[in-house]
From TrEMBL:
It comes from Prunus armeniaca. It is a single-pass type II membrane protein. Residues 192-405 form the Galectin domain. This is Galectin domain-containing protein. Belongs to the glycosyltransferase 31 family. Residues 84-112 are annotated as: Disordered. Possesses hydroxyproline O-galactosyltransferase activity. Transfers galactose from UDP-galactose to hydroxyproline residues in the arabinogalactan proteins (AGPs). Is specific for AGPs containing non-contiguous peptidyl hydroxyproline residues. Utilizes UDP-galactose solely as sugar donor. The addition of galactose onto the peptidyl hydroxyproline residues in AGP core proteins represents the first committed step in arabinogalactan polysaccharide addition. AGP glycans play essential roles in both vegetative and reproductive plant growth. Residues 95-109 have a biased composition (Basic and acidic residues). Its cofactor is Mn(2+).
Length: 684
């Protein structure tokens, strides 16, 4: 018998695969001992009541399964590259003592933390004269309620004539200048932000005249871990951003264009220009130009321009260029004409003046430096030129002057009346007196008139909603601008589908809206289940109901796109301190864009809130996971139901919910759904 000969590479790959399976088995054994509750969740998510252990065959099958499932979103891929931009302080040090141990004071001490997750924040609205005893989140909530109540009183007194609110409601167009200019001193006094009152239009251009700084040393922890060095790099970079309007305090405005030239490079040590977008603090995938020309395929061109032009690089020899020189000499020798080919250096130099121009084309932005085209960046879904109402310049740069030309002179979407269609067919029906199957609470910001109107015209027209088996309401807090609150009040009075919460909107206080959704679902309607989603979430209501029907009604339910063993970020812009969250991991929680709980869990949340014993955290989806876990351990067993199709980022084929959808995409998704196709709308 011939002996089977196996290639060494195949043998190594075979051994590596078995080693990985063995490590996975050991890891799950560790988890089962350290965190026994996760076996119950795994059992619930697998749908197999007979699950008792790990089947390696099943693990292998799952590895070779559907590779389209987004294990890690593209928004995380650029986190390391953006580290140089984030000038945050070092990560907080773990406290040597328990952050919640009793303090000696005259007031009643806080009892030590008994629950595994989070800290007890307790009474949000304690006596106003005891504010110094509240946590940061409690003080923030206390201030928001005070400001909100005052703002609501202003709305009641407001007649709309003094501040020009009547013109906003009636839709009178605002007149805007066709060009703007600003000196570097004026830009610095305005927090390095230039206001573009009516946004941009195709043909508009913004020109920045400035000088790049010389490089400075910067410590990058990721590099220190990857290398065996000290993690010190030389950095010279700046950012030019076209921004939209901020929805709520604490949330960054959307970045319609993020242009980031890095003169000394980043991890690559080569000069690079990065382009990206950011919506609701979630970054897209970056387009990086590093001196290599992009492909000239038709689908890669932007208005006929390449996405990345070529520039000189010291790390590689262009064989094509040397060959061109030889053929050029030969063609000149035989008398043929030869078109000269020039390769330019990187367009930015430390300590040198530059003139940067961003022009808005038909299909994307075009960036030129010194009159020469450098890069092009296609428009992305969910962003429009008229939304680019701010120009921010920051980083290692001295700005001398800024010019914006060919600007639009009117901005119709600034008028809510032009967005809101005051038609009887979009009005909500009165709350039914009989029990309903599902109540959907939609989180929305005050000035999201277009988003709410898109929801009304699309998935809120589902047959189950029209038949009053499902009820939908928007939950909206107040805005610092009283004229915007006045328009919100008129919108709520006409459509009858908005619950106005009398506190000033802040990103950190979204958790209060979630509690309000539970309270409304328990006290105002008799619903079997409650769903929470955002105003940029498209919901296939019929499909979600069918998914719920697959779970026994005798079981408590927590359904969505579940996360297990997620860890809080301890450094960076969105860091969570040990005081806010002392544990190393979050409880199992469903992503915030769309999840469902059964009514008994909602009643538990309201009961705990009413007794001032509800644990709160600034991330509302993590808070809900914490409450469900507490309910699961103290009240009744919860069925954890996981599905990727409750999309966290964007959309996927046959989705249940699609997130980050613009009003235009909402209309497109609804049209496709009407034709029986649950397909995404990936257009601008």
């Amino acid at each position: 018998m011939k002996r089977l000969k196996i290639e060494p590479s195949v043998a190594r790959r075979f051994k590596l695969q078995h080693l990985l399976f063995a490590l996975a088995a050991l890891y799950l054994v560790f988890i089962s001992v350290k965190f026994p509750q996760f076996l119950e969740i795994a059992k619930a998510m697998s749908g197999d009541d007979g699950y008792v252990g790990l089947d390696l065959a099943k693990v292998q099958d799952s590895q070779d399964g559907d590779l389209s499932k987004p294990l890690f979103s593209s928004v995380y891929k650029d986190t390391f590259h953006r580290k140089l931009e984030d000038q945050s302080q070092d990560a907080p040090v773990r406290p040597s003592k328990e952050p919640l141990e009793e303090k000696k004071s005259e007031s009643k001490p806080i009892r030590p933390l008994q629950h595994r997750y989070g800290r007890i924040t307790g009474e949000i609205l304690r006596q106003r004269n005891r504010t110094n005893e509240l946590s940061v989140l409690e003080r923030m909530a206390d201030e928001a309620w005070t400001l909100g109540l005052n703002a609501w009183e202003e709305v009641d007194k407001h007649d709309g004539k003094v501040t020009g609110e009547s013109s906003i409601v009636e839709g009178k167009p605002e007149s805007c200048p066709s060009w703007l200019s600003m000196s570097g001193e004026e830009l610095a006094m305005g927090d390095k932000l230039m206001f573009l009152p009516c946004g941009l239009a195709a043909g508009s251009s913004v020109t920045v005249v400035g000088t790049s700084h010389y490089a400075h040393q910067e410590y990058v922890p990721q590099l220190a871990k990857l290398r065996r060095g000290d993690g010190i790099v030389m950095v010279s970079q700046f950012m030019v951003e076209l921004q939209g309007l901020k929805s709520v305090d604490g949330e960054d405005p959307p970045k319609i264009l993020h242009l980031n030239p890095r003169l000394k490079g980043d991890w690559s040590h080569r000069p690079v220009i990065e382009h990206n977008t950011c919506y609701r603090m979630q970054w897209g995938s970056a387009q990086r130009c590093d001196g290599l020309p992009s492909k000239n395929n038709e689908d890669m061109l932007v208005d006929g321009y390449g996405r990345c032009e070529k520039w000189m690089r010291n790390d590689m020899v262009d064989s094509k260029e040397s060959k061109t020189k030889t053929t050029s000499w030969f063609k000149r020798f035989i008398g043929r004409e030869q078109k000269p080919e020039v390769t330019w250096p990187f367009p930015f130099t430390e300590g040198r003046l530059f003139i940067l121009t961003i022009r808005a084309g038909v299909d994307g932005f075009h960036i030129s430096v010194g009159g020469r085209h450098v890069t092009s960046f296609p428009y992305r879904t969910g962003f429009t030129l008229e939304d680019a109402t701010g120009l921010a310049i920051k980083g290692d740069v001295d700005v001398h002057s800024v010019y914006a030309t060919s600007l639009p002179t009117s901005h119709p979407s600034f008028s809510p009346q032009r967005v809101l269609e005051m038609s009887e067919k979009w009005k909500a029906r009165p709350l039914p007196k009989s029990p309903i199957r599902l109540f959907i609470g939609v989180l929305s910001a005050t000035n999201h008139f277009a988003e709410r109107m898109a929801v009304r015209k699309t998935w809120m027209q589902s047959s189950v909603i029209k038949s009053s088996n499902v009820v939908v309401r928007f939950f909206v807090a107040l805005n610092p601008r009283k004229e915007v609150n006045a328009v919100l009040k008129k919108e709520a009075a006409y459509f009858g589908d908005i619950v106005i919460l009398p506190f000033m909107d802040r990103y950190e206080l979204v958790v209060l809206k979630t509690i309000s959704i539970c309270e409304f679902g328990v006290q105002n309607v008799t619903a079997a289940y409650i769903m929470k989603c955002d105003d940029d979430t498209f919901v296939r209501v019929d499909t979600v109901l069918k998914e719920i029907e697959g779970i026994s009604s005798k079981k408590s339910l927590y359904m969505g796109n579940l996360n297990l063993l997620h860890r809080p970020l301890r450094s960076g812009k969105w860091a969570v301190t040990y005081e806010e969250w002392p544990e190393e991991v979050y409880p199992p929680y469903a992503n915030g864009p769309g999840y469902i709980i059964s009514i008994d869990i909602a009643k538990f949340v309201i009961s705990q809130h009413g007794s001032r014993s509800l644990r709160l955290f600034k991330m509302e989806d993590v808070s809900m996971g914490m409450w469900v876990e507490q309910f699961n351990s103290s009240m009744a067993t919860v069925q954890y139901s996981h599905n990727w199709k409750f999309c966290q980022y964007g959309c996927m084929e046959n989705y249940y919910t699609a997130h980050y959808q613009s009003p235009r995409q909402m209309i497109c998704l609804w049209d496709k759904l009407a034709r029986g196709r649950a397909q995404c709308c990936n257009f601008r």
